[in-house]
TrEMBL record:
Belongs to the CcoP / FixP family. The lineage of its organism: Bacteria, Pseudomonadati, Pseudomonadota, Gammaproteobacteria, Lysobacterales. Residues 126-209, 219-300 form the Cytochrome c domain. It comes from Thermomonas beijingensis. Pathway: Energy metabolism; oxidative phosphorylation. The gene is ccoP. This is Cbb3-type cytochrome c oxidase subunit.
Amino acid sequence: MTTAWNWYVIVLILFNLLGITWLLWWTSKRRPGDPKPDETSHYWDGDITEYNKPMPRWWINGFYIAIVFAFGYLFWYGGFGTYQGFGHWSSKGEHDQEAAIANAQLEKTFAPYKGQAIDVLAQNPQALKLGKSIFANTCSTCHGSSAKGAVGYPNLTDQIWHWGGSPEQILHTVLNGREGVMPAWGKTLQGMGGPDAVDYVIAYVHQLGDKDASARSDYAAARGKTLYEGICVACHGKDGKGDQKVGAPDLTDSYWMYGDSREALRETISNGRHGVMPAWGTVLGDTRSRLVAAYVWSLSHSPKPGTQSAQ
């Protein structure tokens, strides 16, 4: 806030408070020559008289007390422009204080699970219950309440993991996040194989997973194989099995995060994809991250005999 706006706010506040004080004093003051409260000479129907009685003193004094309180409030909490106030109060400071109290209480709840391995936590019904609650508050926005994902957001209930599905890999994903980038190869492929180059690669990718067999063109797939081995093999591998080190998906399975239709694959290959999994470590902390990672891991791993599932 500039100095001019700062003074504008201060003057406006003082004008209103002082103006209200003056108006209260002026209107409650009786002047010489004013009729008595019951001598207004206003009558209706012969026996109805209008009085002009002043407000009770306790009521007027209550207004004055409220005005004094307003000045005190503004000086203590800071309401005059950028003035911070004697109390040095701020909404951020109060939020941080309340958050610290809440976090301290949460730490007591999560303390028994501190540092435990993901697969160990996954066998604890109470730990899974807490992990499910954290998932619902944090992860369900993208992955859905059932964790089955959506277009562009992976399904967490199957056995397919682009970045690895071991307990350690899932915990790393939760703590540090992931960023998957599929470059836009449309122009490059067209320069190598002509205007239909992207469709050739799609035909070969479908052949890798044995999809769309009735409409597959052997010629297109053969052309696509050459183009694939010139560009795509670096990330997805010669056999199309992908590489979990870089998050490159397996092209031979039945799962396609952005869809396996020709239109979806054409968009993916031509214009690329950019998926980001945020890092939740700084938000949730280590223990809560472990609990939610244990819950996610449990979704695709059956509990051992004799244990209960929190799902």
